[in-house]
Write a structure and sequence with these properties.
The complex is a heterodimer of chains A (274) and B (289). Chain A has 274 residues and is mainly α. Chain A has a single domain, classed as MetI-like fold, CATH 1.10.3720.10. Chain A contains 15 helices and no strands. Chain B starts with 10 loop residues before the first helix and ends in a 5-residue tail after the last helix. Chain B has a single domain, classed as MetI-like (MetI-like fold), CATH 1.10.3720.10. Classes of the chains: A mainly alpha (274), B mainly alpha (289). The interface between A and B is large, with 106 and 98 residues.
């Protein structure tokens, strides 16, 4: 569609304005994380960078053992993401490339899981995990999240768009199912895997309620709970240190997001192409 | 499913085994147990159970705190869903135009998707807190977080802000699939931009709107726990005490296991209800490609 010049300028202005509003809370957080306690309390507020970076960031890092928490969060997010991708790839392969008894009902069961987010089963899930002796363990934070309806659906959608001539040709070549899976299917599924990595890593890194319930030692806490601990540990007005902690905990998911942004968008585009 | 298939008797079951083992142990069994427990009185120390029928459900629905939590969760969810979808659709429409730097704008608008509700809570706590909050300074109003209504407004704002990126991504995907020739034909027929939007674009993106409606509702009901815990802890005076926060407190702080189980049953009914409405409306009204 043709656009007049005034219209284009208008759109740029609205977009720049929206970008500023959306980015403002985080920009302010970065600015505050450079200020001393007195500067944070200044009246009128000081909205420019200062030079207290080193103190704020090292204090935030040491006060709550943030290093250990960063490791925990990263380890959990990676293990859950990897497990989910492997399991849902295998499940999607079974659903799309085989004929077997009970297929319909098994697929229906996967749809039902969409009705069961953690909060509706949390009371008994906690008991199950405690029964396994998994309180304060990585297993308790990782294993319950391995099955993924989202992943299974996403991969089923992707597999369906792959021309069936590829399967026929592989069969003529004497290719076994798992050989076909590894040699043909996997390489064609890269951007969907990329999209799922972004979704799941961010989802697990950002989890709050479940880690709050199944961990209670400093050694096993994750960064999201760390933010709350930092807010309680710091004198309530030392926002420089708190914001330093906040900024550090948002870096890993942002990195994953920006590095994999293209395959994330592409994975979604494919999903709705049908 | 139309793919050509391999013939193998056992392999498909072996492929499905990992997923279904996890589903049975960590999804279906706990869900079933939670529902069962909502009809029992449970001693938090000994674990002893006694059948109690509808006792827990009656108890929570005659508790004024729970009822008010129920209502304000609804207010919170509706505000987050409606506000979030309108703003993100407008931004996605702008991003979908052919203008310079559209990709850069896109990145700069969707990245808060990567932030957590807890982070959103900390950021908005800084902006709105009574002592040092910058918004308080610039608006000349220091009581944002000490008044129930404005505190609700702030959690809605924080939750909406955090989820905008997610909604924009999905709306952009849907907008790309709106057929260009239909829009161009309408333009030639003299339909203005608003007419074109409401009679063509809107119809094509309605399946996505319903999908986002469900996703945002569950986000508001469940994922905002971290946001509440860091920003308000349910206060002031219970005015932001949404259902998931109440459930956490009854289960984890007060050890009322039967109540908590009944509350999770209520949440389950809400999810089922929303999903059912989505399926019904999608079947009837929504235009599919």
């Amino acid at each position: 569609m043709r656009l007049t010049k005034t219209k284009t300028t208008g759109m740029h202005i609205i977009l720049i304005f929206s970008v500023l509003i959306i980015c403002l809370p985080v920009i302010l957080a970065v600015i505050i994380s450079s200020q001393t306690e007195t500067q944070v309390l200044a009246f009128p507020p000081k909205l420019t960078f200062s030079n207290n970076w080193a103190y704020n960031y090292s204090t935030a890092w040491n006060r709550i053992k943030l290093g250990r928490m960063m490791f925990n969060s990263a380890f959990i997010a990676i293990m859950v993401t990897a497990g989910k991708i492997v399991m849902s790839l295998l499940a999607a392969f079974a659903f799309t490339h085989f004929v077997f008894k009970g297929k319909q009902i098994l697929f229906f069961i996967i749809i039902i899981t969409l009705l069961l987010p953690v909060p509706v089963r949390i009371v008994a899930l906690f008991d199950v995990v405690r029964g396994f002796g998994w309180i304060n363990t990585y297993a308790g934070l990782i294993v319950p999240f391995w099955a993924s309806a989202t992943g299974t659906f996403l991969f089923i959608q992707r597999f369906k768009t792959i021309p069936s001539e590829l399967v026929d040709a592989s069969k003529i070549d004497g290719c076994r199912p798992m050989q076909y899976f590894f040699r043909v299917l996997l390489p064609l599924t890269r951007s969907t895997i990329g999209a799922l990595i972004v979704i799941e890593f961010i989802y697990i890194w950002n989890q709050y309620l479940w880690p709050l319930m199944v961990t209670n030692t400093d050694k096993m806490r994750v960064v999201q709970i760390g933010i709350k601990m930092l807010m309680n540990a710091e004198s309530s007005n030392n926002w420089g240190v708190i914001m330093a902690g906040v900024v550090m905990t948002m870096i890993p998911p942002l990195l994953v997001f920006f590095v994999m942004q293209e395959s994330f968008m592409k994975g979604f585009a494919l999903q709705s192409e049908k | 499913m139309k793919q050509s298939s391999f013939s193998n008797k056992y392999l498909p079951y072996i492929l499905l085994l990992p997923t279904y083992s996890i589903l049975v142990v960590f999804l279906f069994y706990p869900a079933f147990e939670s529902f069962r427990l909502s009809f029992f009185k449970v001693n938090p120390y000994s674990g002893a159970e006694k059948f109690a029928g509808f006792y827990n459900l009656i108890k929570i629905f005659t508790n004024p705190d729970y009822l008010s939590s129920f209502v304000l969760s609804l207010v919170f969810a509706v505000s987050v869903v409606v506000g979030g979808l309108i703003v993100s659709l407008l931004l996605a429409l702008l991003l979908n135009q052919k203008i310079k730097g559209a990709k850069v704008y896109r990145s700069l608008l969707i990245w808060p998707y990567a932030l957590s509700p807890a982070i959103a809570g900390a950021l908005f706590n800084f902006l709105f807190n009574p002592a040092t909050g910058i918004v308080g300074y610039f608006t000349g109003m220091r009581t944002w977080m000490t008044n129930g209504n404005t505190a609700m407004f702030v959690i809605v704002l924080a939750a909406t802000w955090k989820n905008l990126g997610y909604n924009i991504v999905f709306y952009l995907t849907a907008l790309r699939n709106v057929p260009r020739n239909a829009l161009e034909a309408a333009e030639i027929d003299g339909a203005g931009p608003f007419r074109r939007f409401f009679s063509i674009t809107f119809a094509f993106i309605s399946p996505m709107t319903f999908f986002l409606l469900v996703m945002n509702t569950t986000y508001a009901y469940f994922s905002s726990f971290g946001l509440i815990d860091i920003l308000t802890e349910g206060g002031p005076a219970g005015s932001t005490n949404i259902l998931i926060y109440q459930l956490y407190r009854d289960f984890f702080v007060n050890s009322r296991i039967g109540y908590a189980a009944a509350e999770s049953l209520v949440l389950f009914m809400l999810v089922v209800g929303i999903t059912f409405i989505q399926f019904r409306t999608t079947e009837k009204k929504v235009h599919y490609q």
